[in-house]
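REQUEST FORM: STRUCTURE PREDICTION
Request ID: SP-0412
Submitted by: Lab K.M.
Chain count: 1
Length (residues): 214
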Amino acid sequence: MPGLTEWFVFLGTAALFAVSPGPGMLYVLARSLRGGRSEGVRSVLGNGIGACVHVVAAALGLSALLATSVVAFTVVKFAGAAYLIGLGLYLMFQRRHGQPAAEDAGGTARRLARSPLLQGILSEVLNPKTALYFMALLPHFVHPERAPAALVFILLGLIAVAMAVLADLVVALFAGGIGARLRRNPRWWSRQRLASGATMIGLGGFVAVAEQGT
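STATUS: Completed
RESULT:
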């Protein structure tokens, strides 16, 4: 386990990471403005679950593959970029929020695919920079001679994820309230829809140009 001084350093570093605007926070902002607080909170939970997947993968050593393999990093990077860009295009050309859609045999599957929770999980899992963040930060605070390395790694990772979730929740609640008011105005809703879609496409572009070592 980390020593007292290391705990302060770790918590400070994790806090800075949590409040720094990044792809996850911008994703939550866009979804909250579009769908209100409920959609924003579900997006936050999706991001948190996706980040937990990276924590477990890093503890098992799987994330080291992304850090050392150019091919693996590139595949995950472009898969994530394509997903975010596709999601952005969907948001830009979506019909008016709240308009009932025709029900058919595939309605449930489409509702699941549009779920903010599921989309948050996928967007975070397909972001290789999250995996590299945990691989770069957490090993400095793990001391195998004091406690099992994997357990300490997971504990520290979950603390970092919890701090990020709290910061994203603040964004979701604040932006969700603004989004609820904007949706009452068709003109502003149309502009917000285009802005949210453009944000997603921009995030996809950011992921696509990300370098392995940065």
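NOTES: Residues 96-106 have pLDDT under 50 and may be disordered.
Reviewed by: T.R.
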